[in-house]
Every structure is written in C-alpha cells, then in structure tokens.
Design goal:
134 residues, mainly beta, Immunoglobulin-like, 2 domains, 6-stranded mixed beta sheet, 3-stranded antiparallel beta sheet, 1 helix, globular
C-alpha cells in the first residue's frame, strides 16, 4: 500500500467526462474519468472517490475582493454549501443548506491573508475562488 507524501501538488480539470492534469509525477494528459479514478485509487489509496462538475467562472461573482469583513457571493445557480479554506488547506468556515443564489459571509474573525472560497451547488457542481482579506 502506497502512502501519500507529506506534500503533494494536484492539478485537475474535468470536462466532458475526461480528466486532464497531474498529481506529483502522475501525469494525466487526457483519459476517461472512470479510468482516472481507478488509477488514482490504486496509486493514492482512494484519495478521490468521485469527481465534481466544473462551474463556469463567469457564473459566480465574489466581491469585494480583497475584502475587509464582509464577502458577497452571487451566482446563476442555487448554492448548497460554502466553505472558506486557508492557504494551508484548513477549513475555516462551512455553511450548509444555503439553497440560494446570493449569500453574504461575515468573516470578521479571519486574519488578513489569502483564502479560498469553495461553492457547491445542489446538483453537485463546485467552484473554488481565491479571496484576500485585508
């Protein structure tokens, strides 16, 4: 059984049920999603169990960015879940069952720095955007 390295880099792009990307030395030029999941599970102990549907960046607005304390999110689809993740990958905030196309996050408690906001739709689609708190 292989173990994950202490640090690893993941870049994946899923479109039309094909995957393009790389995980450390495992380069994926283009392969069917099912074949990728099978190869990844055998190489990395089931790190990924399912793929997410990509959302077009133009369907979501996150503003203002940079922000001081309040972050507004507006989308063309119903948002089910919002997560704020810090630059080391730690989950800082999670809001579930939103089921709305607009939402305001109050992030006074976060320190200044770079974060990522991850949005998940009710149909399983997801998107991640970089945000900066000043």
């Amino acid at each position: 059984m292989k173990t994950l390295p202490s640090h690893f880099v993941v870049f994946l792009h899923v479109k039309d049920n094909n995957v393009v990307g790389a995980i450390n030395n495992l380069v994926i030029e283009s392969m069917p999603l099912e074949a990728f999941e099978s190869q990844l599970q055998s190489s990395y102990c089931g790190l990924v169990s399912s793929a997410e549907h990509e959302i077009d960046q133009n369907q979501v607005k996150v503003f203002p960015n940079p922000f001081e304390s309040t972050l507004n999110i507006s989308s063309n689809f119903a948002i089910d879940k919002i997560e704020v993740i810090n630059s080391t990958g730690a989950l800082m905030l999670s809001k579930n069952k939103i089921e709305a196309a607009t939402f305001t996050l109050h992030l006074d408690e976060l320190s200044s720095g770079v974060y990522f906001v991850r949005l998940s739709g009710i149909k399983g689609e997801s998107l991640r955007k970089k945000i900066i708190k000043i």
